[in-house]
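SAMPLE LOG
Freezer: B-3
Tube label: C17
Construct: single chain, 76 aa
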Amino acid sequence: MRGPGCRLVKAPPATDTCRDGVSLAYRPLREIGDERPMTNTNRDYLGVLRAIGTDQATVDRMAAAFLAEQHWDIQP
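STRUCTURE (predicted):
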């Protein structure tokens, strides 16, 4: 079942960075202004973060820190 439409108002841009030896690459999957119904599936994803490093704990910590710094604004 599809939900009501939502519009992406603010989202971070594509980013490539390296933190604590972890390579981070964020790619948006939606453009600002896109309006789509909520499906509660992976079709609702707004972006993809790839993180590559030498140990899982550091990769997890750097990915979490990166995502915590970002802001997405979705409005009905």
